[in-house]
Amino acid sequence: MKTIILTLTLLSTIGLFAQSAEDRGLEIAKAAENADLGFKSSTVELKMTLKNKNGQTSERLLTTKTLELTEDGDKSLIVFNSPKDVKGTSTLTFTHKIGADDQWLFLPSIKRVKRISSNNKSGPFVGSEFAYEDLSSQEVEKYAYKFLNENGNLLNVEQDPVDPKSGYTRRIVTYNKDKGYRIEKVEFYDRKNSLLKTLTYSGYKLYKNKFWRAASFNMVNHQSNKETLLQFSDYNFGVDLAEEDFTQVALKRAGN
Amino acid sequence: MNALKKVSNASNKFASQWATFVIKNKWLVLIGTFLLAIGLGSQGKMEFDGDYHVFFSESNPELEAFDALQEKYTKDDNVIIVLSPSNGNIFTKENLNAIEELTTESWNTPYSSRVDALTNFQHTSAEGDDLYVDDLSYESSLKSNTEIAEIKEKALKEPLLVNRILNEKGSVTAINITVRLPGVDSAKEIPEVTVFTRNMVSSFKEKHPNFEVHTSGLVPLNTAFFESSMADMALTMLMLLIVIITTFILTRNIYSTIATLVVVLFSIISAVGFIGIMGIKLTPPSATFMTMILTLAVADSIHILITMLQKMRQDGLNKVDALVESIRLNFMPVFITSLTTVIGFLTMNFGDVPPFWDLGNITAFGMTMAFIFSTTVLPALMAIFPVKTKVRKETEKTKKNWYASLGNLVANQPLRLTFISIVIIGGLTFLATKNEFNDEFINYFDESVTFRTDTDYISENLTGIYNIEFSIGSGESGGINNPEYLKKLNGFEDWLNEQPEVVHVNAFSEVARRVNRSMHGDDESFYRVPDNREEAAQYLLLYELSLPFGLDLNNQINVDKSESRVTVTLKNLDSPEMIAFAEKSERWLVANTPKEMHAIAVSPMLMFSKLGFRQAESMFNGNIIALILISLVLMLALRNFKLGLLSIIPNVTPVLVGFGIWALYKGQINTGMVIVFGMTLGIIVDDTVHFMSKFLRARRELGYDAKQAVVYAFETVGKALVTTTIVLLAGFAVLSTSSFALNSYMARITVIIITSALIIDFVLLPSLLILTSKKKEKIIQKKEYTQVILDK
Fold first, then answer.
1. Distance (Å, rounded) from C-alpha B692 to C-alpha B716?
2. Which residues of chain A register pLDDT less than 70?
3. Which of A207, B51, B383, B734 is the right S-S partner for B23, CB 3.0 to 4.6 Å?
4. Is-contact B557 B61, C-beta < 8 A?
5. Which domains are assigned to chain B?
6. What confidence tens digit (pLDDT) does each residue in B133-165 have?
7. Which residue of A has its CA nearest to B71?
8. Quick one: pLDDT at residue B400?
9. Closest partner CB to A107 (pick from B138, B538, B546)
């Protein structure tokens, strides 16, 4: 009996040590997802600043509403507040754990909702350095994982996108395990596996004692030398949004 | 006269002392010059720059305008891979699949930011309020025949594809790889892209032998510049061989050949050191410096060696005496010809094309070193070598007779020959004005270069290679959504499309029309620009949302959306047509659009088109200065103002004759040929100097009349002139085999000019000398005679 226990202990210890980099990576991603679980819904004001290689900038103001879903990906509604000529234009996105996302667009000038069916996740989001896939909700199923290394409280995990239409071969994500597995930095490698962009999160604040939200996302494209800065303000987790706030009718309403 | 005589005596004395010094310290001189050459050479560094930008000086206004446009939008280079399946139909499952594979592989190209192909084209279709954006053909291997037929129909209707990525028949298609070179080290980055794409293409061909593949684009253009620099560099070996053979034939002496080789090699090594010290990066024009120096430097050595060997063979002098005598006789002529050559090459700095500044400066430095080495290491080596010769007189005599009879022939009919010459030169000068500038840079490469043939194939079968671009302003931030702006822009696009020179137009108005149609369920009647600004702005936002990886609006629209870019793909136009088209377009904008929409046309092609004119304009002053300086040098060297002036005729006319013959031969001249005036002037002046100085000596020292003096000049320098001309012709003939037209055309016209120069110096110059001397003949003769007596 003793020997059996000993053997089991030994095996499990070995098993623990032998935990593959893949498993460890997946485990971290899941831990991060769990840590963020249960925020239900939120709204936030967003200022997007685009900067080209010569330092010229242009700005856009948006409002984003997000609804958390567990069985499938999150739903989000984005309203453009400026520049003036696109004010009221809004998008509604249903992210899916598997397959293409659904997207609707409301254009106030023609007062119509258009459904956009696109596999184009790798394309840039309204001229920014962020691709759709960088901004859509981070579902665990979208990547294959590989733990790389640990540096103090920071964990580096390589994530290889499952979708062949992704613009990346891999991303290297830095998690902060002491702060609810919040993400500190992401490095994006393009299809030829050279470093394309680096996304740095800063100004983290803890909301509802559980959810870490960064005040700014700074994406630097190393190949084009362009930058996009997203600045978030007025995080609100108390809005208590529901499914009916994320419908085509709601989309139309949001834009008016 | 006496004072000048003293100068001449002084220079003779200096040359003799110099020669004696060098011979006495031959080992020291050898080691010293060796150390000098090696010391300079150790600083040497040969780097190539293949970027086409090197052809434009920083102050070039066309380059400035083009750079400004590239600053506003994305700055991209590209590789275009053109595929032609043997069955003549792109739209089969196998062919589409092969294209898809190659497209995927193309994404791995170093520095690539975007790959555009038929298969990954973002096709938008609308059904009611549903918009579908998808790759035109994804996972083609799974497509059915009906699906492929649909793809074909969609593709051949798509204005963004036809004549750009796909030909009208659907038999040829392209994959366009956009690369964003960091521009830190073009000598490293460009080959990286080239090596990758070449390997990719060759393995594609292996796997899909039914495809014909052609490659072009800006990166291959840069590579072609790069490779022609290397190829022209390799011509140096051929020239070296010619130098060895020519020197051996002319001197019939192995030691002379070795000594000459040392001189030219030391000169080249020093020039390489100069390149390193100055940090010059070599380009096709400047990469010819080795052949240039070889050609020009060898003449110095040959002059000195031939005289030395003649003195030994004919006059039976011993080696050291012959050497001192040769240096004494040749020091000044070699110095003067080196000086004029250096002046000629330095005038290239007046031009507006940096590679020619480099060529001029490197060659000028090399020639200066060649002069130093010819008067130091050459005599030192000849003093060290055990040179022995047999005295042979007869052969020389027969040759002398040939030149003498030529001299007599000319001397007997000066008036007639002058008249004939003037008629011929006049006729050719008239023809010379008929030459037209053409700097089509594709045609810089001859048909032995794959880049040229591939590019020709592409322009014949798919799309134009030449383009021009405009940045059309709206005058306000976000103004590109103003319907007025869009309508005018659309008008410009339509007008461009009507022009016979135009292959394809890419304008933002097309995007506006397309999105408008999509927003109205693909109703063709909405294929027009939106009617109000909000609509246009919101459609643009939608369009922005649908752009694929690696593309953003910045390709076509500037950051604050106040300007948009119009790219016009053109048929193969030569430079004058290209400039005319650009001006025509600019005028249309002025006549039909508000002020803020006026724009100037820019593109690399347009920059090259204007390069020849710009170079000619800026070289004009340089050429005048060269002519004045070189004429001054001649006046001083000949110590005769009148003959110095007269020398302008045989120095200038060969160039006129050269361009006249060129008008019959090609009729089109390029930037490379603009420099030949200054350059050949420095070279051909050699003939004039030698001929005139011998003529003067005969008149002054020997008291001959003009006719006798001409015959004397023929006898004494006829052979030397023919010899050096042959060496020069050999050198430039070697260069004329270059596959790069800036070099080969320049070399070819130089061959014509040098040949004409010799003929003019043998026909027109002596005739003029006789004619201008006639009246004062007797008086001069008397004076000279008395002076000779006095001197004694």
1. 11
2. 1-18, 137, 255-256
3. B383
4. no
5. 10-59+252-392 (1.20.1640.10), 76-219 (3.30.70), 466-602 (no CATH)
6. 888 888 888 888 999 999 999 999 988 899 999
7. A54
8. 55
9. B538
